[in-house]
Amino acid sequence: VVGRGEQPSGVPSTFGQAAEAVKKAQATERDIAKASEEASSGGGYTTEQAQKLRADQKRIAENAQKMAQAFSQTAPEVAKLLASAAKPMTAVDNRLDAAEKRPGETSVPVAESAAAKANEAATALDQAYAMLAQKAQGEDEGKGSPSPAAAAGAPAIASGVIKASGGAPAPAKPAPGEGAPASGGGDDGPDQVASNDDGDDVNVNVGDDDDRDINVRIREELDDDNDLRITVDRALDYVDRDDYDSAVVEYDRYLVDHPDNDVALLHRADAYIDRGSYDYAVRDYDNLVELGVQSAELYYNRGCAHLAAGRLADAIADFNASIKLDETRNLAYTNRGTAYARRGDYTTAIEDFAAALRIDARDELALRNRALAYKKLG
């Protein structure tokens, strides 16, 4: 609820301005749906496409949440529609996150699901726009409800456009226990690796460049199987609700009849890692290796699972294999450096953090870990 003087920054100050902002958001959401439909019928998303669509989705979702809060008292029916749009937007964001790490044919079932969710969100936004436009007409005639800013006792905001910003933060999660990072679908802080009396830690990036979580991915060919698409869609719906047990069950059912399907094994390994079941994830990655899958991503992912479980030697071996296949993966160096830091070998860790930064100078985790490793050395 927006109290007196607490109008959120960037929220339109009149119903007319809000209607225009929602109309633009609805058009962008339809564009996301259309692009996802094309990806599902073609070869899937490209990495760049998934990144751009995800940035658009994050911006729209955050702005919808802000307006839902602002209208909670002055136009609760509008607030309800905006809030209902936010849920499928979150689902789209999760699917685009997966596609960004796993582009191409493997992202086809994800794209199909994202298109449906984006259309669902766009429909809710369209309904919210219709209500806002009606209220704006009454506002202009001097007969409608007061604007959200006036009702809240806040000064009007000059701009009628919702300001873009980064993605909304996920709920805070409890700190992970020693040797294992937090799991789940939100934005976690870095995993603690080693503690001392002054509270400094060397942290680990376990899967994503934005340190989101350890939702590690592999690029594999998609089995053109409608049952698989349905399975992935259902499982991803469970992941949206952080119900990883049910997601695993969906993949289990499919794998009974298709035990060697590499895409299903991949997705189940993702769900296991989200759940914190690192040993089970390693088992699926082992099965993929036995099936002949050889890729830098696979060894990197398995290394992340070993690192999360505290098996440092196994983690280092897998990161070595990943780097041998692809020397351009900065995260493999960052996580291998973290494994060395956990073993107390800060000199070697610093070398790996430096290697990661030569590949990507924006690797904030490598920067922080290197600084902390230097501090450990005195």
Notes on the protein architecture:
This protein is mainly alpha-helical and 378 residues long. It folds into 2 domains: 15-147, Four Helix Bundle (Hemerythrin (Met), subunit A) (Up-down Bundle), CATH 1.20.120; 191-377, Alpha Horseshoe (Serine Threonine Protein Phosphatase 5, Tetratricopeptide repeat), CATH 1.25.40. Helices cover 63% and strands 1% of the residues. The protein contains 14 helices and 2 strands; from the N terminus they run H-H-H-H-H-E-E-H-H-H-H-H-H-H-H-H. The protein has helices at residues 15-41, 47-70, 76-101, 108-140, 148-152, 226-240, 244-257, 262-275, 278-290, 296-309, 312-325, 330-342, 346-359, 364-377, and strands at residues 191-192, 203-204. It has a two-stranded antiparallel ribbon. Helix 9 (278-290) packs antiparallel against helix 10 and helix 10 runs antiparallel to helix 11. The N and C termini lie far apart (50 Å).
List the helices and strands and how they pair.
Elements: H1 15-41, H2 47-70, H3 76-101, H4 108-140, H5 148-152, E1 191-192, E2 203-204, H6 226-240, H7 244-257, H8 262-275, H9 278-290, H10 296-309, H11 312-325, H12 330-342, H13 346-359, H14 364-377
Antiparallel strand pairs: 1-2
Helix pairs in contact: 1-2, 1-4, 2-3, 3-4, 4-6, 6-7, 7-8, 8-9, 9-10, 10-11, 11-12, 12-13, 13-14
